[in-house]
Amino acid sequence: MKRLLLVLLLFFAGYAVHGQDDPPQAPLRPVLLLPKFQPGKTYRFLANTNVYMAPPGEPQRRVLMEQQARYDADKLPVGGKGVAIRGLTERLKVDIQSGGKSVSYDSLGKENQRTKIGRHFESTVNRYVQMELDGKTKLLSHKEGGRSAGATPLPGLPRFGPEELVQIITTIPQGYSPDPVLPGDEWVLKGKRPVGELGNLVFEISYKNLGMMKYEDHDCFVIEFRGQLNGDITDDSSRNVDFQGSRITGNILFDPAVKMTRYSEHNVSMVVNIPDPETKLKRPVPFQQKVVLKLMQIVDKK
């Protein structure tokens, strides 16, 4: 009776009570956090990109893009250790604003074939990309295919579709430690990252595993990161520009149950020095980019 009373008192006082036969709690073990596409599955992601530039003395420019991407995963040919991915755009919405002018496009619009803007974006949005990934979800190869409209793209207006499908795939495995990690562990990664219309920039970013959290009823590991973009533009086809005050921050939520990124957010802020088209003198232009990627669905491939 005295033992029972003691147990009840400890219980209501908020203390944990362990019997003599209770097994000891297992120690934490490092976990390898690595997203992987499973053959036979279809993955749907929603990517939102917001790019903002403010050239001095000129109208501010903002590009908003929302892309719903579908990826069908299959096994590679006999002997392959990776996965084959077929990516396509199920919906694309674009809104470009420059001063008082704006251009909007929605791939589900009924008048796209009758307008120059619609035909411009339709020329690429309907194309798919066939990709091959290795066992670490690294892109090995990609090839475009599918229907392409015959209309000539409008000069100076960007196009979206296949290139963004590839960028999503290359971004998904970025930021994960090559080694198993525990909550609180930190690591540093270096490489190249596409940034808006500027091309590929060299980065050095510090990451930290903050442990588990609940995200839309899913238990996910949280990875927080911050770092800097360094050097000049690395894409030889880009304009000759440099930048200053660069910063990149964000977070990644990894779901170990499905071995995939559930959510990621990347924020880039910098001042870009762009040559004036008339004087050729460089002028500072504030640049900001925010990219949010969400996993919408994983289903069996039909």
Could you walk me through the main structural features you see in this protein, from its secondary elements to its overall organization?
A hairpin with a 7-residue loop joins strand 1 (41-53) and strand 2. This protein has helices at 2-12, 116-125, 162-171; strands at 41-53, 61-75, 83-98, 101-106, 128-133, 139-145, 186-195, 199-215, 218-230, 242-255, 260-275, 282-300. Residues 1-20, 22-26 and 234-239 have low confidence and may be disordered. With 302 residues, the chain is mainly β. It starts with a helix and ends with a strand.
In short:
The chain is built from 3 helices and 12 strands. It has helices at about 1-10, 115-125, 160-170; strands at about 40-55, 60-75, 85-100, 100-105, 130-135, 140-145, 185-195, 200-215, 220-230, 240-255, 260-275, 280-300.
Unreliable sequence segments:
1-20, 22-26, 234-239
Radius of gyration: 24 Å
Major sheet characteristics: 12 strands, antiparallel
Strand content: over 45%
Overall mean pLDDT stands at 82
Outline, from the CA principal axes? globular
| Annotation, overall tally of beta strands | 12
Query: Roughly how many Å apart are the termini?
Result: 63 Å
Classification by helices and strands: mainly beta
For this structure, the quaternary state is single chain
Along the chain, the helix and strand elements come as HEEEEHEEHEEEEEE
SS summary, helix count: 3
Helicity, as a percent range? 10-25%
